[in-house]
Amino acid sequence: MKIILQTIILLFSIATFSQKKLEGKYCSVPIGESNVTCINFKENNRFDYMVSGCLGVSTIGSGKFELKEETLNLIFDKAEQVLKSEIKITDSKVESEKEVKLKFKVKDENGIEIPANIIRTSDRKHFFFDEVNKVFLVDKNSPKVNYKIEFIGYETIELKIDNSSDKIIEIDLFPDQAKVISDKEISWDWEKVNENEFKTGTNIWNRFKKVIK
Questions:
Q1: What is the pTM of this model?
Q2: Contact yes or no for 41/24 (Cβ under 8 A)
Q3: Which residues pair with 145 in a beta bridge?
Q4: Residue ranges in the chain whose pLDDT is less than 50
Q5: What top-level branch of life does the organism fall under (predicted)?
Q6: Nearest-CA neighbor of 41 among 28, 23, 57, 54?
Q7: What is the side-by-side strand order in the sheet with 145-150?
Q8: Which of 18, 110, 151, 196 has the highest Cβ tally under 10 A?
Q9: What is the pLDDT of residues 67-112, one digit of tens each?
Q10: CA angle at 97 for the pair 130 and 164, rounded to the nearest 5°
């Protein structure tokens, strides 16, 4: 009788554990000023993912999750990183027969000029850069070149510019947005602690507690 009872209890435990149903919003345990990861498990095995810290939300993503045996798989949807920054390029008549002038004007979202870094990321030969006035002098009709515009706390812009004419490149740079995780899969070890908590590792920051049902 005792053996039968133990077997029933064991089978009940296995059945209960094998369900491993996840619903609601779980967040990692914060340590000091460290980032907090929150995952909202929804119907049809959908989830929303977010990492935030003292500077706000830094990473977001959505997708489908799988909870199999002792592994939690987060399969992120393919999504584009949409930038708010705006770019306007105006062509003008070439003043020189040998070179073109590329004038950069970078402002923030309020129209105030900012000292952004402008980096020529390819073909670093045959040009001159006037850093004070943000002007590139480039060989006329040379191949298109990639440029990167960046400033701390703001979106990074990358663009390709041809060298057929003089140009004024006006950029309205907006503050950084949360990075979107796209077309990626994350696999974690998963262990249930209780009805409102699970862990993905042995460290305190690997514990996730339910905050919303």
A1: 0.68
A2: yes
A3: 161
A4: 2-19
A5: Bacteria
A6: 23
A7: 117-120, 145-150, 157-161
A8: 151
A9: 988 999 999 999 998 889 999 999 988 888 899 999 999 999 999 9
A10: 75
